[in-house]
Amino acid sequence: MPSNGLDPIDRKILAELQADGRMTNVELAKRVGISAPPCLRRVRTLEEQGFIKGYHADVDARSLGFEVQVFVMVGLHSQAKDDLTAFEDQCRSWPLVRECHMLNGEVDFLLKCTAPDLSSFQTFLTDELLTTANVESVKTSLVIQEAKDVPGVPFDVLEARLQKTA
Amino acid sequence: MPSNGLDPIDRKILAELQADGRMTNVELAKRVGISAPPCLRRVRTLEEQGFIKGYHADVDARSLGFEVQVFVMVGLHSQAKDDLTAFEDQCRSWPLVRECHMLNGEVDFLLKCTAPDLSSFQTFLTDELLTTANVESVKTSLVIQEAKDVPGVPFDVLEARLQKTA
DNA sequence: GGTGAAACTTGGGACAG
DNA sequence: CTGTCCCAAGTTTCACC
To answer: Which backbone phi and psi does A144 adopt, to 5 degrees?
Structure first.
């Protein structure tokens, strides 16, 4: 019962590319212990099968002028399927909303918003989110400090798990 | 009052690399409208100055076997500086905790956790988080659906802002 | 999975505006 | 200081074993 048809080399490739997405293929091949052509074939396969969804530069929001990050908890009036979908579509259209998670419990959605400053977030809040149909309650929490923000998944947790089942 | 000593070409470079971090330098140069050598020089400068913090492959958590994502709201007993720092350090040492944000309001920290399944999250919760000194209250919210999860910052918001101040 | 070879990319140097 | 042109070293990516 392996991960998902992935062998240890595939997982190593994913872990390496998650840590450094601009690594050259020869460097990657050296690290995972095979030669470059089969390594590239594996990477292409992983991309095609959707294990790798893309590659992104990690841009420093603060120094670029995005000073505020806010979590917004949203409760909806109606939780009918179409109404949930309508709200999700709305979220996708708002550039300030970077993440929209549907949660269990009392709150329906958790949004993570990134904005240049408080006033532009306030504008979004009052002019966009609060005027949206079906929105019942909105509770915002400002991020005071970013203590940890690691992209991707914890491969060490996965490897530890696979050890146990092996 | 531009962004941060960045000209429109720099911002275009950042936006392009955020969208596709594996783009070759010649392709990037073509897109931003300059030739390759100065484009590479700009990229290196942006990296050195910390505007680009790194490059990461965006790995699909679900297909890799990370089925659950949980937001955890943590309240601490003492909010003294050293106690806050101690908790942040603790979060950095837990691989399951991918993000740790210090918030304003009634809750002190919001954690985003990624785990293979509910039981391994439960183990983390009971054996790690709940046994941590100074942790007063813990409230967990399971992510039912990921409606939106876009990496990086909204460059279009930034450009719109710069237009206004220009 | 490995090898070799062609096409391309990177990244430096020399130079012009 | 930023852009252009050119060139060697390294990288990607093919066909083939």
So the answer is: -85, -40
